[in-house]
Amino acid sequence: MSFNKLIWVIYFLGFVVDERIGGGIGHDNVVNPDLKRFKFPALYNFGDSNSDTGGRSAAIADVPLTNAETFFGVPSGRFCDGRLIIDFIAEKLGLPYLSAYLDSIGTNFRHGANFAIAGSSIRHGGYSPFPLDIQIAQFLRFKSQTAALYKNCSNKMTIQSNLPRPEDFSNALYMFDIGQNDLAFGFQNSTIAETQASIPKMINKFAAAVNKLYNAAGARNFWVHNTGPIGCIPFNKKYYRSKPDKLDMNGCVEVLNRVAREFNKQLKEKVLQLGKDLPGAAFTFVDVYSVKYSLVSDAKKLGFEDPFECCSSGNFGNTVDCGNKTIVNGTVYVNPCPNPSRLISWDSLHYTEAANMFVANIILNASLGPQSLNSKGLPQFHDPKQLI
């Protein structure tokens, strides 16, 4: 089943998910913004591998060469066979794909920059040396250096071709997709109870980052993704295959998802509070968890194969029976699957382009949509019913 033929399913599923989460923050707050007509001059993103467009490749090591085979055709620094959700959002905004801030080759920051680094978390420690506050510090330096160049350089045309205008920063859209690695690292290095108990510290660190952008950079427009169903990731399910009592009716690890839902609950509460505390700021909270969980639970109805199969084990060793393996002199080589558009998982941890497209279509086009928490500072959203 092609995605062109799935549009009607996407609209239907939007209502199903909305009912499942009880309308989120409130039925009257469920909206569908037509992002392209908002005319945001720039997009700045902070996050982990779910939205990394080349940061880890530039700073640490290249991602597997088999990545990007579906869309880009050449290494793109993404942990995916093609586009990520943020790429589809950029398309919707009418902006170019975001260049990674740390990439020095062929980058253009005229319409924003991506500070996301694979493995990053909200708190320090974990899988990456680039936690959220480091990403924020990088952004603030980028902003100050840009302002200095505009002030001191006589050739403004040269600067304008590669850098944003100083006035664009207050009108830009600031996106967050981070938190999954905080939970994952906690699961691997402490108990589930201890990980859940640490959630308030994660949320407070997130709020501090938002406040810094608001106060130091004049940011006003915020778009926040909650974390996905970590218990539905093939990498995690492998360790619970011998414990079927730990799995829910769709085969996901319920105890891990329960902690993810608690994280999302506290994140939503904090975003609501930030919307009240920061005058003139507008927040859009996107319930990615519900969309991704519905994708897994209804995978075969939507034209996908087993949601716990994947194409390539990437850099994660042989922890998951993933893709087609060939053993030569004791070395295991992974051959990517011939049709990743039929699978949800790309490398046992990250989604395929087809799955990312599905999620993006729902949060951008369907009735579930993002949820506006504060209309100040953002153009009015039109009624989502007009889409049907």
UniProtKB/TrEMBL annotation:
GO terms for molecular function: hydrolase activity. Coiled coil: none annotated. The keyword Glycoprotein applies. It comes from the Eukaryota. InterPro entries: GDSL (IPR001087), SGNH_hydro_sf (IPR036514), SGNH_plant_lipase-like (IPR035669). Gene3D superfamilies: SGNH hydrolase (3.40.50.1110). Pfam families: Lipase_GDSL. Residues 1-18 form the signal peptide. Keywords: Glycoprotein, Hydrolase, Signal. Belongs to the 'GDSL' lipolytic enzyme family. PANTHER family: GDSL-LIKE LIPASE_ACYLHYDROLASE, ZINC FINGER FYVE DOMAIN CONTAINING PROTEIN. This is Uncharacterized protein.
